[in-house]
Amino acid sequence: MSSYYEDSVTLVAAKEILASLVESWALFRLLCLSQNLWAQEGCFPIPIISATPGSVIPWNESVKILCWGTPESYLYQLEILRNSTFEVVEKKLGFQEKAEFLISHMNTNTAGRYQCQYRKEYKLSEHSKTLELVVTDIMNQDYTMENLIRMGMAGLVLVVLLAIVIGNWHSHKVPNKEDWPDFPELSRSKHKCQTGPLDKALRDTRALCGKAYCKPGNKKTLPS
Description:
CATH superfamily of the domain at 48-139: Immunoglobulins
Order of helices and strands: HEEEEEEEEEHHH
């Protein structure tokens, strides 16, 4: 009877030991599996996203978005945030460490927040940090430099016109007396020779007055 009881206790103890061994093996396998998964995920570096020439782009200009992964990555995809969710914009196939996404014309539709990720060994990596692209409106840009250039050109034109006006005024100015040219004076004899019809009439009148008709006290009139 005692031996039967001892055998029963031994059997129960063996079952407990076996159960504990099975549980320990299961925990060990689970731990190994989690470690393997962590190691595999550790081989997927977080992608790096950047923009060239920069994240602020003038209207209708182009920009390149770069997504850096690993040389073993064979698929890259670019996503944009729209309506609170990220949508795939473009995908690039091929084993490469870096993928380039070109946006030819920046506008309000292409501006926004971007992120990228890559695929390696049939698994996707984590998303990169968010890159925000901002488009600047040319109509609202600061035209200070252009305005200064225009004002400078207008000032130069005014200076040239003022110089022309001053030059013309000096050319038409009356010269001083000492600057006058020496014109020869007409002699009195030449002046006398230059007589007209009126001088001839005066000479005829004087000739008639030399006669008696013009003497004092003579009231005779000139013959008609």
